[in-house]
Design goal:
Order of helices and strands: HEHEHEEHEEE
Strand content: 15-25%
Helix content: 25-40%
Largest sheet: 7 strands, mixed
């Protein structure tokens, strides 16, 4: 229970950055971006994605949770977009095996959305085979996102 409260607090802190003015949220190298990931301790693909995030330069803190559902609901991820892990970076929610090019676009463009998701566990996505030609959609959610809005197309 303590781990869940810690994770939910970390997500709430990450989401509170959403209220900062745009000038305080300018794009910076990935090494300037702290990322918190809530994941299952037994999921190898989640650990692979976390390792890739670190390679990309993110300052990653991971919290292992037996049940990541509270992290997803606290972060506002619609159930139809759930995947296996939930991350927060610069006030944005990253759900699942989102490609790092999509995250870079998100942090550069700073749209008025809650986050982005690679629903399910797309084969070839980062942590799921790492195939740069794998084709799948990354969906925006919350804020001004239109339900089902494609934010990024992987493999194009």
């Amino acid at each position: 229970m303590k781990a869940i409260k810690h994770t939910l607090s970390a997500i709430a802190i990450g989401l509170s950055a959403w209220a900062l003015p745009a000038t305080a949220q300018s794009a910076a190298p990935m090494s300037d971006h702290a990322m918190h990931v809530a994941k299952s301790p037994t999921c190898g693909c989640c650990e692979a994605w976390v390792d890739l995030a670190r390679i990309e330069g993110f300052d990653v803190t991971a919290t292992d949770m037996d049940d990541v559902t509270p992290a997803k609901t606290q972060a506002g991820v619609p159930q139809n977009l759930w995947s296996c892990h939930t991350a927060v970076v610069d006030g944005y929610v990253i759900e699942g095996h989102v490609p790092f090019d999509a995250i870079a676009k998100l942090l550069r463009d700073r749209p008025a959305i809650t986050g982005i998701s690679a629903p399910g566990m797309p084969m070839g996505s980062p942590g799921m085979g790492d195939d740069p030609t794998a084709r799948f959609d990354v969906i925006a959610f919350g804020g001004e996102a239109i339900p089902g809005e494609i934010y990024f197309q992987a493999g194009e």
